[in-house]
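Justification of resources, computational component.

The compute hours requested in this renewal are based largely on the per-chain cost of generating structure records like the one below. Each record pairs the submitted sequence with a full structure-token output. That output is archived, and it is also reused by downstream analysis tasks.
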Amino acid sequence: MNHKIFYFLLCFIFLIWISSTPAAAAKFNIRTISDKIFIVDDPQSSENQLVIKSEKGLIIFNTFWSEITARKYKAEIAKNLNCDNFAYTINMVDRLDMFGGNAAYKETKIIGHDSFLAKYKGKEKEVEAEIRQLIDMWRWKEDISRKRLETQKKGSDDAINEERWMNTCKQRADELEDGFSLALPAIFYSDRMTLDLDDVTLKLIWFGKAGSYNGMTVVVVPEEKLAIIPSFILHPQHLAPYPYNEYTRLDVERWISILEQILEGENAVDRVICGMGDVWSKERAHTHLEYIRKLWDSIKTAEADGKDLTEV
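The structure output for this chain reads:
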């Protein structure tokens, strides 16, 4: 065989092999928010993991949709932070694709609002139904994204971002089908809970009922003047009341009270981590509090005028 051809084939085989190995995968990014708070980003997806490094160990917030993805992030966190002492896992939202990776952190103390227990313990049929609903939702989003991708210029930033989101939706649906295992929190709180981690304190606060979400938790870190708030709370669509049964169960006055405690007054935070990745100023987060207050005042005014929720 011609030596040049042989060399070419050898290089080609090597490139195929190396592209299929973990070492060739894009490296995770570590964003440093402070000397204790980090965000781990996977550049190949739109997901990230919030981590607090304390003297008592690492604290993880939410665990994605499956043990498969949770273990991938766990390995990256341990490697990049040079620490494998995982102490606590905080489940902030009672939705199965937000804590589906709990099994990866069984050695930690997993904490959640007590609604997790009422909603999921011994409710196999309900769990199966929610998983199916979530799979269908992510398949639908994957399909919508694929159709959008067809209209975008190949190789453009929009097309690249769209394809990344499409693949993320597919991954979530696939892993919910094949990699989901239910592991509920072992420690529960009902209204507020404080974790003393020696060098840092976490104040867990129940946010109240928000449509189909009953167990949403916000976390305040006083030493950092920082709050961690699920993206559902600061999203202009998710908290709007709708004339559907699940959206009539809303603790709006509690939402307003909790957000006022966090964003106003002498104890207000300076920054908010929205979801697990976006860092907002207090001022930006406050616009959402103003939105909720205005919306609620308008609803009360409309109801006082004799209109029901459907008309509103």
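The radius of gyration is 22 Å. Helices lie at 3-19, 67-80, 115-120, 124-150, 157-178, 252-263, 282-304.
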